[in-house]
Amino acid sequence: MKRGLVAATAVVGMLVGVTACGSGGGTKTGADGFKGQKLTVWVMNGSNPAQWTEQVSAQFKKKTGATVEFKVQQWNGIQQKLSTALSEDTPPDVVEIGNTQTAAYAKAGALAELGDLKKEIGADWNEAFNKASLVDGKQYALPWFAGNRVVMYNKKIWAEAGLKTTPRTRSELFRAFDTIKKKTDAEPLYLPGQNWYFFDGLTLGTGADLVKRQGDKWVSNLGDPKVAKAMDIYQQYQSFSTAPKNKDEATPQQAEVFAKGRTGALIAMGYEAATALKANPKMKKDIGFFTIPGENADKPEGVFLGGSNFAVAGMGKNQELAKEFLKVALSKQNDRQMVKESGWAPKSPDLADAAQENPAVAAAAPAAEKSGGTTPLIPQWAAVENIPNPIKSYMTAVLGGKSPADAAKDIEPEINARLAKQ
């Protein structure tokens, strides 16, 4: 029977009881006592790079005698699918969960507590990475990766337009886009109308919050003039793009559009370069990165620090083996590989040298340090991101000509209804 997050919340008593008893581990047999077993790990499309996956799989098998099966999931509809899976008797053993959604699953009792494991393998992780794994002070997940968006640009097209330097302010960036539009046949920027994580970063830059506390409940703050200001900035960006106003960056994959060679720039995560190169290996020398510039040169544009955590299913039957997997997957060696291969930010100081090998990480660092943040880390937030995402609907409405104030009035009842369900 399929059940959503609300239904999962209804079984919180049962789930908490199971995890509190240490279900799934059985008698400990040691790291090498799992020979012949198989562990199921759900990861999201694009999350597990090839070399990282290969070496983690090999190390896990060598250590435990067990095999790991990575099952790749799609982002669209993942919250409903994951809620159902974690409510069943045979859930996936380990799951990737977006860092803004972890609190909701933990509150539902669907995740095992991992405090001891964090002390063992992540004692030196930066607190900013670990914050989204904590709920009421307890560790219900472990941070896998995090990062923020940068400008990924086509050096060849910028050279065609006579652009010799990268912009340091937003106005300089817009002038560069305008120059590409006038002097080349390329599209200056590919920016779908519903790249809402970029929009969320812009709200951070204007000092806005997407929700606010009203008495004892959370409600929408979409009508805040600061949100409208962020949406105005987004409209300015989107005016240089012919991308659909009612689609997000995954439909189609914007990196694959970029790979066709006639797009000047994307607002992208570092790992999207690998997607582009897979589609068009000849572009390797043409891809460059720079920090998304803000209004002033001393402060980059606001950015959403997005990422994912690994969690162990509270109803899982293989929790001890799942923990052995996390020890391997989140080791220093494999965290280093994630930074080098996918362009994620290093989550401990001694991984900084790995970041230097990836230009996307270097470009992301200034904004992460000066202008980064997340969506609200509250259990109620996960429901807001469910399909259809009302904030995406707000963005499309404004880009279609509706005023931010009117679009907010139309959308806020739905956001408030979702926030009230938790």
Structural class: alpha/beta
Helix content: 40-55%
**Low-confidence segments:** 1-28
The neighbouring-strand order within the major sheet is 2-1-3-13-6
Helix tally?
Answer: 20
**Radius of gyration over C-alpha positions, nearest whole angstrom:** 22 Å
CA-to-CA gap between the ends?
21 Å
Report the β-strand fraction as a percent range: 5-15%
3D structure, described in words:
By secondary structure, this protein is α/β, with parallel strands linked by helices. Helix content is 44%, strand content 14%. The chain has 20 helices and 14 strands. The strands form five sheets. A five-stranded mixed sheet has the order 2-1-3-13-6. Strands 10-7-11 form a three-stranded antiparallel sheet. It has a two-stranded antiparallel ribbon with strand order 4-5. A hairpin with a 2-residue loop joins strand 8 and strand 9 (217-220). Helix 3 runs antiparallel to helix 15.
Looking at this protein, list some descriptive labels.
about 425 residues, alpha/beta, five-stranded mixed sheet, three-stranded antiparallel sheet, disordered N terminus
List the SSEs and their pairings.
Elements: H1 5-10, H2 12-20, E1 38-44, H3 50-64, E2 67-73, H4 78-87, E3 94-98, H5 102-107, H6 115-121, H7 127-130, E4 134-135, E5 138-139, E6 142-147, E7 150-154, H8 155-160, H9 170-183, H10 196-206, E8 211-214, E9 217-220, H11 225-238, H12 254-258, E10 265-268, H13 272-279, E11 287-290, E12 303-304, E13 306-312, H14 319-329, H15 332-342, H16 352-355, H17 359-371, E14 372-373, H18 381-384, H19 390-399, H20 404-420
Parallel strand pairs: 1-2, 1-3, 12-14
Antiparallel strand pairs: 3-13, 4-5, 6-13, 7-10, 7-11, 8-9
